[in-house]
Amino acid sequence: MRFSALLVTAGLMGGGITFAQPPGAPADLILTHAVIYTGQGFAQDKPQTVEAMAVRNGKIVAIGATQQVMKLAGPKTRIRDVATARTGVYVFPGFDDAHVHLGEAGSLKLTLDLTDTRSLSQMMEAVERFARNAPPGHWITGGRWDQTLWPDKALPTRNELDNVTAGHPAFLVRVDGHIALANTAALEAAGITGKTLPPEGGAIDHDRHGQPTGILRESAQELVEKVIPAPTPAERKRALELAIADAVAHGVTSVQDFSDWQIFLAAEELEKAGQLDVRMTEWIPFLEPLAEEKQMRASHPGDDPMLHTGMLKGFMDGSLGSRTAALKAPYSDDPGNTGLPQYTQPQLNRMAVERQLAGFQLGFHAIGDEAVSMALDAIEEAELRLYHLKDPRQLKYRRDSLPRNRIEHAQVVDPAEIARFRELGVLASMQPCQLLTDMNWAEARLGPTRAASSYTWKAFLQAGVRLAFGTDYPVEPISPYRGLYAAVTRKNEAGTRSYFPEQKISRGQALAAYTQGSAYAEFAEKTKGKLQPGYDADFILVDRDLYRAPAASLLTTRTLETYVAGRQVYMADMHLQ
Q: Which of 444, 451, 438 is nearest to 493 (CA)?
């Protein structure tokens, strides 16, 4: 059911009511005696709160004072008196994670998860336990290992993996997804030898004898991936269910996802069965032929509020952690290495123009400053062609109608190019929680000068660039509370170390980026990101005031309940209805 954008307000928020016109039938659900942050005023650090909210047919129909909103109650209306259910409960708009990989996250829950390993020996012990229980010939997959957390920080090798895999082929991806470790059996299955040439944009590490070490970088991973048995449809569906359950348990009601197409088909199955518990916007690979991209876009209704396709996702480079992010100057801790760009500029421009003219929103994974610069150049060319312009300065007159192209991550950006984001209407889709991990080594990778202009959320906002926040789940946990903490403190989780604190932002700015900013990035700012009449009834109940609680306490925030379209999709075990 759609509601008119016309709102009627009676009195002030303390004692009045704001509702969609006309009020219509009785509400399905009313929350009363609550502290409800509507999202209005977040970006200006002037948050609006109300004490009651009415929901009907998945939409918010009224907010205001309890006495007034209760006038929309009927005999079948469910009344939730929040104050009597539990003290210290606050209601917020559900989070919209602007960058996730649900398929990969769910698969990790069905495979080998090495997230908690803090040394090479711990990693190998975990692999050995898994191999011991695996059926004969079964591939050992999964990963999320991170050598930067280990004492010696050295990359593992295939020989070490061979010692614990008992003949099973093994392929274990690093936490950032940009390098992987394969054992000898996996390399042999893929036909990789010391003479194998890597594909464009990839690299195969070799030892001093010229033999593969087992480390495959970027596109070289595909040599092994293509010989790994594909998961069954049932396994994919189960993986998606597990990832979605993780999301809603952390207060995430919408995700912008990049997984393989089979995951999207699994999401369609869940939706048809009435079991899709999170709103999904699925990205389409930028590298696919244009005809196939169009076919994917046309395969599902674009106006489906629960599930649809979105932007084209392209990879400009790798990651700082694996030293494959494309930089303008060499890594400070690896002289001579400037990363692995995935395109030439002419190739990228041609593809970007072709897809922009076909009506696609463009989104580029770009972490290094060279990758960001190349992405901006391609977007500029595409937008000029879209509007038949020759001078980039003319784009400012089109600012309200620009196609909301995006750069994902934007971790290292030449300060002189931040203004180009604004000029081109490019959104910075960033993941503040990644700083909690990256601050341990980012300055060593970049040197102090470049590090000072990395993860610069405040600089983007000051330049008038829109931010959309997410997690890059499963590279980082999907908890938005970690992201809020990182954004407003720029400290590690122990609170003992900070990273260029002048770039921290306010609580309201962070909440806005994680709700309204993410919604804007997917053209949904008129239906998501706020708890206002006419908006989707996507909201969460949490155990503390996210706006005013001490920053350190954000890390231990607990989601009590999660609602999508007015339907409860999660309730914490200990929370009382």
A: 438
Which of 2.30.40.10, 2.70.98.10, 3.30.300.30, 1.10.357.10 would CATH assign to domain 1-94+529-577?
A: 2.30.40.10
Q: Which of 321, 343, 342, 340 is nearest to 446 (CA)?
A: 321
State in Å, rounded, how far the first CA of the chain is from the last one.
Answer: 27
Integer Cα distance of 452 and 391 in angstroms = 32
Assigned CATH topology for domain 288-528: TIM Barrel (3.20.20)
Q: What is the pLDDT of residues 361-420, one digit of tens each?
A: 999 999 999 999 999 999 999 999 999 999 988 998 888 889 999 999 999 999 999 999
98, containing H or E segment: strand 95-100
pLDDT reported for residue 575: 44
Report pLDDT digits (tens) over 460-470: 999 999 999 99
Domain boundaries, the chain: 1-94+529-577, 112-225, 288-528
pLDDT value at residue 177: 87
pLDDT at 108: 87
Say which CATH architecture domain 112-225 belongs to.
Roll (3.10)
CB contact burial 422-450 (16+ within 10 A = b; e otherwise): bbbbbbbbbbbbbbbbbbbebbbbbeeeb
Query: Which residues, given as ranges, of the chain have pLDDT below 50?
Result: 1-15, 575-577
Backbone angles phi, psi at 93, to 5 degrees: -60, 145
CB of 421 closer than 8 Å to CB of 396? no
pLDDT, residue 576, reads 41
Residue type, 69: V
Per DSSP, 31 falls in state E
Predicted pLDDT of residue 305: 97
- Estimate to the nearest angstrom the gap between the alpha carbon of 225 and the chain centroid: 23
Give bridge partners of residue 216 from the DSSP assignment.
180, 204
Q: Regarding beta strands 202-206 and 212-218, do their DSSP bridges make them parallel or antiparallel, or are they unpaired?
A: antiparallel
User: What backbone phi and psi angles, to 5 degrees, belong to 550?
Assistant: -55, 140
With 0-12 / 13-18 / 19 or more C-beta atoms within 10 angstroms meaning exposed / middle / buried, residue 194 is: exposed
pTM: 0.87
Instruction: Return the pLDDT at 6.
Output: 31
Query: Residue by residue, what is the 3-state secondary structure of 224-242?
Result: HHCCCCCCCHHHHHHHHHH
pLDDT tens-digit series, residues 14-33: 446 666 655 578 999 999 99
> Are 1-94+529-577 and 288-528 in the same CATH fold?
no
